[in-house]
Amino acid sequence: MSGLLHRHRDFRLLWFGETTGKFGASVTGVAMPLIAISTLDASTFEIGLLGAAAWLPWLLIGLPVGVWVDRMARRPIMLAAAATSCALFLAVPLAHRAGLLSIGVLLAITLATGVSAVFFQTAYTAYLPGILLPADQAEGNSKLHGSASAAQIAGVGAGGLIAQLAGAVNGMFVNAGTFLTSFVCLFRIRHREPESKPAPEERAERSLIGEIGEGLRLVAHDPWLRAFALFGGVSNLGLVGLQSLQLVFLIRTVGVDEGLAGALIAGGAVGGVAGAFVSHRVSSRIGTARAFLVFEPGVSSLVLLIPLTTAGAGLTVFVCGSFAMSAGVVASNVIKSSFQQRYCPPRLLGRITASMQFVNYGTIPLGAVLAGALGSAFGVRPALWVMAALISASGLILILSPVGRCRDLPTTVRAVAVSKAPRTVA
User: Fold this and answer.
1) Which residues contact 381 (CB under 8 A, 6 or more apart)?
2) C-alpha distances in angstroms, 175 versus 13, 136, 153, 168?
3) Is the distance from CB of 256 to CB of 250 less than 8 angstroms?
4) Between vectors from CA 334 to CA 331 and to CA 335, what angle results, nearest 5°?
5) Which residues contact 184 (CB under 8 A, 6 or more apart)?
6) Which residues, 6+ apart, have CB-to-CB distance to 23 below 8 Å?
7) CA 248, CA 259: separation in Å to the nearest integer?
8) Which of 84, 354, 108, 92 has its CA nearest to residue 229?
């Protein structure tokens, strides 16, 4: 298990920078809603809008960003996105000290950091296979997802602690520092991507709309990519809706304080570390496709325990449901990431990633707004039941797809028609 972190300097830097960034993002995931709840006295619907604003850019600009990532070097894009996010998160406490912070300002900053996240994540997904050999990608994805889950645990716990000791607004200083660290780590990576300049006649034929359409056709015509995209869209609709309400649920419905709410969410997030740890072993033993079904919808369906949470001993129900949900999601993400990196042609990976994430993440703003609207109209607990049921039911998409009829996911593209593009993985 020593592997990559000992012998691969560039991966080590990428791993540390990404892990640090995930820690900061987890602090923000707690601090932003707490700022809205405790500092700005936001309504349940406004908290839902805040969750939607972070993901709306995937729906608005995700597809063209995928084309730009395929046209440009990925590392400079990641550097610019990390620097921009650092500056934006610093703006929150500065606006608060100037007396300018409002729910509108918080929504605008969240939306802008979401734009940076689109650029960073799309470039990062396409960049990772370039620094790792195919044989190392499964280990690399496992380490990255496992450390991201551990960072989430620490970040959620730290976010709640910071909110109690220094105020939720000050959590933004921590997040800005993590993006600065991510920037430094990326800057120190020695690997440089080879230049890929198209021939003059190919350059003349290229258009933004045409390349966006190419990426969408890749996903729509391929049964494997299509199944994962549809599953991700439906499951994320419920997942983010549930996550956008869990702090409100614990604090206002169950009646726990901010620190304990952060600790409970962190306890559930431990499942992500467990999922990353066992995903490769389970995949090797029973096959990647079967393992995906074990984790999604199998383990993740225990999310249905979360709406049953009550005060006192009933809080263990929340931790168990959250643990299972985190384990299933992270384990399946490890499997899917390795599949996608080996299955898709490298020169098209940005467009394919953006097209899948357009479907996967495009439903997230809808989920957050829907959860906020349901919570306002019928109460937070009934809204959680709807979101949890969506997460569980989304597994039917996988069961009825080719994923449900084989042992292993394929590693080469078989039936995707791409104009002027190779059909096999480079």
Assistant:
1) 249, 253, 307
2) 18, 30, 15, 12
3) yes
4) 90
5) 17
6) 151, 152, 154, 155, 158, 178
7) 13
8) 354
User: Which residue blocks in 189-295 are alpha helix, DSSP H?
Assistant: 200-205, 208-221, 223-248, 258-286, 288-293
What is the C-alpha separation between 222 and 383, in angstroms, rounded? 34
Helix H or strand E encompassing 294 = none
At residue 79, what is the residue type? L
Q: What is the DSSP letter of 171?
A: H
H-state helical runs in 72-170: 74-97, 103-131, 134-165
Q: Which residues contact 58 (CB under 8 A, 6 or more apart)?
A: 114, 118, 357, 358, 360, 361, 362, 364
Residue the block writes with tokens 């012998």: 7
Question: Residue 207, class by beta-carbon neighbours within 10 Å (0-12 exposed, 13-18 middle, 19+ buried)?
Answer: exposed
Q: What is the DSSP string of 365-423?
A: HHHHHHHHHHHHHH-HHHHHHHHHHHHHHTHHHHHTSGGGG-SS--SS--S---TTS-S
Q: Angle at the Cα of 25 (from 81 to 50), degrees rounded to 5?
A: 95
- Tens-digit pLDDT profile for residues 133-166: 776 776 777 777 677 767 766 776 677 677 777 7
Here the tokens at position 425 are: 């993985």
201 burial via Cβ count (<10 Å: 0-12, 13-18, 19+): exposed
- How far apart CA 63 and CA 149 sit, in angstroms, is 27
Q: What is the pLDDT of residues 355-386, one digit of tens each?
A: 887 787 777 777 877 888 888 888 889 999 99
- Closest by Cα among 175, 169, 160 to 24: 175
- For residue 84, pLDDT beyond 90: yes
| pTM listed for this prediction | 0.67
DSSP state of 197: P
Torsional sign, CA 408, 136, 63, 215 = negative
Peptide bond preceding 382 in cis form (omega within 30 of 0): no
- Per the structure block, which two tokens stand in for 222? 């391929």
| Contact (CB, 8 A) for 325 and 274 | no
